[in-house]
Amino acid sequence: MACKVNDMKTDDVQHVTRGVPSAKGGSALILVLWVIGMLAMFISNMAFDAHIEARITSYYRKRHKAASLAHSGVELAKMIMEKILEIDPNYEEEPPEDDPWYLDAKRLAQGSSLSATYPLGEGEFHLAIVTEQARRNVNLLTKEEEWEPILAVGDIPEDLWPDLIEAFLDWVDKDDIERSDGAETEDYYATLENPYGARNGALYSVDELIRIKGFTQAIIYGGLLAGESGDDGEPVVVSGIADLLTTYGGKKINVNAASRRVLMTLPDPEGIADLVAGAIFEELEGFEGDDGTTEPEFFEDDADLFRSVPELSQGGRKAYVTTKASQYYRITSTGRMKGVERKVSCIVVRSKGDLRILKWEESED
To answer: Are the beta carbons of 246 and 262 closer than 8 angstroms?
Structure first.
């Protein structure tokens, strides 16, 4: 009887033992789950990396195409500018049906500017051609009264004007004698942490202003003016002066192409610069044609300019304006491909039918 009981207990124990997983089996299951988790993470990372790489590849492909579109715009600009010599700007004639660029070239021949967008393939490029004579040549600003309206249009606080003007004049003059509010090599530039010398000559580019004492990034290109506050205690934000200046061309600005801001920099002893600029733009507004488009007007010559806007003959302004076409142009071509943009900017000189590039820059817009 005792043996039978013992047998039953043994069977029961064996039965219970078979129902509980062994330690070895549990470890194997955990290992399998761990391997599956790691594989899932690995595949997920691979998929994410592939997605990122695909997007990067797509971006660089679009970037390359946008750059090609921008270069195409420059080539079109060259072709349009070659046509200028073939056009009489004062002769009224119907544009040739087989020449889609005739009107663009005629606008340039009239001393005006060109700004248009051209579709090409899946993208487009925006082309702007403006005579450099639409800006003031910074190297020819040798008088205080010439600088003051420029700084005023740039919203530069008046208390900064004397230091800026004299520092500029010291930078471009031939001597090493420091003006009272200026700066020369020995007195200032040689004492900087990274010393350099004053140019003592003409600026190579408008960007060079940043090397002159007092000319900050904000003063040149616009922005928040550090260390300055208005009467209300608020920070001073300025528009800057870079868009008003160039280092190419002569003393006169072409009123057919100049912006209102540039026209506001003309000598203004009577305080009527805004009225003069408004009168010029009123004359240039143009008229609406039969097809609903606006045909821009232009001043045919200097006589037409001074007859139409007699205020330009007063206050010394006559020496600063013209209608004659310039040999220097700024070409800006922005290629666009599905949200990606690339920009090419260059300065060219046109002489005897030849076009020569003087300056070339490429950037992301």
So the answer is: no
- pTM tops 0.70: yes
Collect all residues with Cβ–Cβ distance below 8 Å to 258 and sequence separation of at least 6: 134, 135
> What is the tens place of the pLDDT at every residue in 285-342?
765 445 555 566 788 889 999 999 999 988 889 999 998 878 899 999 999 999 999 9
Residue 289 lies in a domain: yes
User: pLDDT tens digit string along 54-85?
Assistant: 778 888 889 999 999 999 999 999 998 888 87
User: And the tokens for 19?
Assistant: 């129902």
What residue numbers bound the domain in which 346 lies? 49-136+241-365
The two three-digit tokens of residue 131, written as one number: 């005579």
Classify residue 333: in a domain, yes or no: yes
What is the biggest distance separating any 2 CA atoms in the chain, rounded to whole angstroms?
139
Q: Are 130 and 113 in contact (CB under 8 A)?
A: yes
For position 365, what pLDDT does the model report? Answer: 59
